[in-house]
Amino acid sequence: MIRRRNIYFESRGTPGLRSYRVFRLLLASLGIIIACSVVVYVHVLLVHINQGTTKIDEVKSMNSKSNNTIHKDSQGNQLSMSNNTVQLEPLRPIDYEQYTVRMNTWRRPEQLIVSAKHHASCPGAKQIQIVWCDDENDPPAELLTEMTRNNKIIIERHGKNSLNERFNILEPAPTIGILSIDDDVLRPCEAIDSGFFKWMKSPHRMVGFDARTYVETEDGAWKYGYLR
Q1: Per the count of CB atoms within 10 A, which of 3, 61, 165, 227 is most buried?
Q2: Considering only CA atoms, which of 62, 110, 97 is closest in space to residue 174?
Q3: What is the mean predicted confidence (pLDDT) over 116-136?
Q4: End-to-end CA distance of the chain, in Å?
């Protein structure tokens, strides 16, 4: 009986031997888990690299296509068209500091004078371009006098009476950022600056206060419209 019990314990192993075997089993399991994790990580990394390479190739392809269509805006800045997206040249120092105001007006001389003076007082306004489309009347004398005092204000005379003339820039704008506004709209300079700062983050997009937009026709002309 004693011999059998010894054989039984010898076959089972001593407590130290059993602990060593358990340790080896855990160590082997941990090694398998680490190896599987490395394989999965490498696989995921290769997938991301392949996706990134594909995106880079797509961007290169888009750039090569867009290089075939080059346009210039009213200031002579080069514009590249890619999938109907206009890409501006990098902003200049002045474009980070000031903007141009293009103001439509129609036979509201008192309101025009108030609006022109107000916007000219904004430190962020580099120039106030008044889009004058009234062939039957001259600009008010008070406005002409104000122009001699403040060189920010200029009058751009147009031969066609249309709201879309605001997009027909005859006088080159001194800045890339242009605020299109009507003469009966007055906003604090701080509010305009806020919109200007938002525009600087994405200068290729339109930023505004009103639900209005522009419509581009098949021949490339711009029309004034409302956002629907």
Answers
A1: 165
A2: 97
A3: 96
A4: 98
